[in-house]
Amino acid sequence: MMVSFFDQFASPSYLGIPLIALAIVLPWAIYPTPSSRWVSNRLITIQGSLIHRFVSQLMLPLNMGGHKWALLMASLMIFLLTINMLGLLPYTFTPTTQLSLNLGLAVPLWLATVIIGMRNQPTAALGHLLPEGTPILLIPVLIVIETISLFIRPLALGVRLTANLTAGHLLIQLISTAVLVLLPIMPTVAALTATVLFLLTLLEVAVAMIQAYVFVLLLSLYLQENV
């Protein structure tokens, strides 16, 4: 039983070919392509308005140098949000439950922010490793601690997204299995459990949206320190 619970996180394959690439690329086909016309339909108008509002809020604390990341941040937010939401549908696979994918997104982007900081303002970037006013005896210890915390950032980004989505999917599968088992034995308890399952599903929808936003927000904060 425990093995079957974790089977949903195994990357599906067909004829020995992993389908995770298809699961990553396919969500982009859902969104309508913006038109060059002055007048567009309501769906494209709503989509553009939401993206504009999100980007304006995300780029607000950044200077003009950080605004170059606006397209990348908006695309990453839409990508993660779509994959997380589609993963809640039955008989679907969620690529963001794979730690390898999340680290593949977190490490290069975090490294890019660090490289930008070291190139543009190396003194300020290295100054984050040693808070001002630190006693002389604590300087070596604090440098080591801050360096470790700096390198842990991409790992924390990937593990946070993976752990939250994996825990939610496991809870949904556990409670849905309990509903099926209890239905012929205790229908009243099964109905109450199904209500809990419905509320948990709503919570997971919120978690899917929040985790996508938190991932991009933390990247913007790392970028803010280095631009």
UniProtKB/TrEMBL annotation:
<dbReference type="Pfam" id="PF00119">
    <property type="entry name" value="ATP-synt_A"/>
</dbReference>
<dbReference type="InterPro" id="IPR023011">
    <property type="entry name" value="ATP_synth_F0_asu_AS"/>
</dbReference>
<dbReference type="GO" id="GO:0046933">
    <property type="term" value="F:proton-transporting ATP synthase activity, rotational mechanism"/>
</dbReference>
<feature type="transmembrane region" description="Helical">
    <location>
        <begin position="12"/>
        <end position="31"/>
    </location>
</feature>
<keyword id="KW-0472">Membrane</keyword>
<keyword id="KW-0138">CF(0)</keyword>
<keyword id="KW-0496">Mitochondrion</keyword>
<protein>
    <recommendedName>
        <fullName>ATP synthase subunit a</fullName>
    </recommendedName>
</protein>
<keyword id="KW-0406">Ion transport</keyword>
<feature type="transmembrane region" description="Helical">
    <location>
        <begin position="196"/>
        <end position="223"/>
    </location>
</feature>
<feature type="transmembrane region" description="Helical">
    <location>
        <begin position="138"/>
        <end position="158"/>
    </location>
</feature>
<dbReference type="GO" id="GO:0005743">
    <property type="term" value="C:mitochondrial inner membrane"/>
</dbReference>
<keyword id="KW-1133">Transmembrane helix</keyword>
<feature type="transmembrane region" description="Helical">
    <location>
        <begin position="170"/>
        <end position="190"/>
    </location>
</feature>
<dbReference type="InterPro" id="IPR045083">
    <property type="entry name" value="ATP_synth_F0_asu_bact/mt"/>
</dbReference>
<comment type="similarity">
    <text>Belongs to the ATPase A chain family.</text>
</comment>
<dbReference type="InterPro" id="IPR000568">
    <property type="entry name" value="ATP_synth_F0_asu"/>
</dbReference>
<feature type="transmembrane region" description="Helical">
    <location>
        <begin position="101"/>
        <end position="118"/>
    </location>
</feature>
<comment type="subunit">
    <text>Component of the ATP synthase complex composed at least of ATP5F1A/subunit alpha, ATP5F1B/subunit beta, ATP5MC1/subunit c (homooctomer), MT-ATP6/subunit a, MT-ATP8/subunit 8, ATP5ME/subunit e, ATP5MF/subunit f, ATP5MG/subunit g, ATP5MK/subunit k, ATP5MJ/subunit j, ATP5F1C/subunit gamma, ATP5F1D/subunit delta, ATP5F1E/subunit epsilon, ATP5PF/subunit F6, ATP5PB/subunit b, ATP5PD/subunit d, ATP5PO/subunit OSCP.</text>
</comment>
<keyword id="KW-0812">Transmembrane</keyword>
<dbReference type="InterPro" id="IPR035908">
    <property type="entry name" value="F0_ATP_A_sf"/>
</dbReference>
<dbReference type="GO" id="GO:0045259">
    <property type="term" value="C:proton-transporting ATP synthase complex"/>
</dbReference>
<keyword id="KW-0066">ATP synthesis</keyword>
<feature type="transmembrane region" description="Helical">
    <location>
        <begin position="69"/>
        <end position="89"/>
    </location>
</feature>
<keyword id="KW-0375">Hydrogen ion transport</keyword>
<keyword id="KW-0999">Mitochondrion inner membrane</keyword>
<keyword id="KW-0813">Transport</keyword>
